[in-house]
What does this fold into?
Amino acid sequence: MSTHLLRPQGQFPYAGLPRRLAAMAYDALLSLALLMVVTFAYLMCLKLIYGEAQLKAMSEAGALNGDPLLSTLLLFSLFAFFAKFWTHNGQTLGMQVWGVRVQNADGSAIDLWQALLRFLLAIISFLCFGLGFFWMLVDKQKRSWHDIYSGSCTVQLPKTK
It folds into this structure.
């Protein structure tokens, strides 16, 4: 799968932790909204299948708690959200606001495999109390675990006029 060069091109400084955290906070709000919409759609489908009365009974009995199908749908939805933005223009909406971009060292967009590695390692980094994110404070190239493992880098773009 060929990757395309991202615009603008050039040598950009690596993005620092505060800017990356700000973009993550913005994207967390968007992700939460996405998860709410997917959950709503899933529950509406269940309502069509089982009917309102049986769905309410299932809910009260706890049968919907930890639903593996819903969990899988939510995980895939989140991955699709991040992968689409990372592989097309290198930026999620939060990254666009804060002028941060994910790219390969040559300035090209990351591919789907790299996006999957970034996504999974970011989850692991978060579960390790953020250690994978704070790793960039000791790395000379300001790389987090998911940057290192996926072979990508996160840069700060210049402000546009």
About this structure: The CA atoms of residues 1 and 111 lie 7 Å apart. The longest strand covers residues 100-103. Residues 17-156 form one domain.
